[in-house]
Design goal:
This protein is α/β, with parallel strands linked by helices. It is built from 7 helices and 11 strands. Strands 1, 2, 3, 4, 5, 6, 7, 8, 9, 10 and 11 form an 11-stranded mixed sheet that branches. Helix 6 links the parallel strand 4 and strand 5.
């Protein structure tokens, strides 16, 4: 995606990821299955065994492509990231996968191009999270898998400051949704999902985050397409 086609508000908001410290971190981490967070293990391994193609939104330096193939070597992996330097590094280090610069709102591929559309560590740090969820839903023909920060109390938008100890201070929004808001967001997708499954656990937010209530729910949502002719079945487990 040419720079002129990326939403300037997203590019500006997400400029924190373009720091040298961020690039260095993702070139050295998130390369192996044993680096998955506990919340990522809820759904990802099982879903990967059911698919042959995947769009990863916010792919950073591309290391997650190796994680994906460790569970299913047949998956065709396509990663997009808003930071051109990430995409350049990913193409160099992971030539077996496909990468493109993108803002998570507009994609170079037709609707329903992938069995799975995935985003981890993206939506809760982006004010356009609702638009991104809708755009990702249009790209999948089967599954949407993404993480959120949730609360059973009052939702809020806090701040994440210099997550990689950047020498030049940077910040991102930190979005915490209520469980009800998250379910309404997914239920309102078109076509309407067949299933919405949310699983997570209580955990302290990053020490770089400023929130009224730093105790949040680390949660993943697995949303499945189908006929869309009836209200979705909903399963929520946030006990751990």
């Amino acid at each position: 995606m040419p720079s002129s086609d990326r939403d300037p508000s997203v590019v500006d908001e997400q400029r924190a990821w373009a720091s040298p410290e961020s690039l260095a971190y993702y070139q050295a981490h998130r390369q192996r299955a044993d680096e998955l967070y506990p919340s990522e293990r809820f759904f990802l391994p099982g879903v990967l065994r059911q698919i042959t193609s995947m769009l990863d939104v916010g792919c950073a330096a591309g290391g997650f492509s190796d994680v994906v193939r460790s569970f299913n070597p047949q998956v065709e992996y396509f990663g997009v990231d808003v930071v051109p330097a990430f995409v350049e590094a990913a193409r160099t280090s992971h030539p077996e996968a496909t990468f493109a610069v993108g803002d998570g709102l507009t994609f170079p591929t037709p609707p329903e191009s992938f069995d799975l559309v995935h985003a981890s560590g993206v939506l809760h740090l982006n004010r356009r999270y609702r638009d991104m969820v809708s755009a990702m839903w249009s790209q999948t023909r089967r599954f949407l898998l993404c993480d959120l920060r949730l609360t059973t109390g009052e939702p809020e938008i806090g701040r994440l400051d210099s997550p990689f100890n950047e020498r030049d201070p940077v910040s991102l929004p930190y979005v915490v949704l209520s469980v009800t808001d998250a379910l309404q967001m997914f239920s309102a997708l078109f076509p309407q999902p067949d299933f919405i499954r949310i699983k997570g656990y209580p955990h302290e937010a990053s020490t770089s985050a400023t929130l009224r209530n730093p105790r949040v729910l680390m949660a993943f949502a697995l949303v499945e397409k189908g006929a869309g002719d009836a209200p979705p079945a909903i399963e929520v487990d946030l006990g751990g």
